[in-house]
């Protein structure tokens, strides 16, 4: 429903009250991770409104949904995630990369600018090969 449906379909499942929102697939991705590639903010917001999510949950590569949104440059998805209470923009994935590393690598200027503009983004974190986002 998350990948092919709309927010109404997702809400139907959530309304049934029997969905385990912390279940993950073989690569550790939860429904929140699955909502990012579709670039559908309404589905993402529907999931987040349940209040049953840790927005910083990681998949097997250590990526949070924010890493994924930053990597592909989905600005609206990125903003929804970043503005979710508890979202940590400085978390490192399994490669030591933060959302800023990912946005910089994909030339996502909007996301880079937004992260830097918060004043809370650590620009000096080095990834596993010693590179900073700069």
TrEMBL record:
Gene Ontology biological process: protein K6-linked ubiquitination
Each ANK repeat, start to end: 27-51, 61-94
Signal peptide location: none
Keywords: ANK repeat, Repeat
InterPro entries linked: Ankyrin_rpt, Ankyrin_rpt-contain_sf
GO terms for MF: ubiquitin-protein transferase activity
PROSITE patterns assigned: ANK_REP_REGION (PS50297), ANK_REPEAT (PS50088)
Protein name: Ankyrin
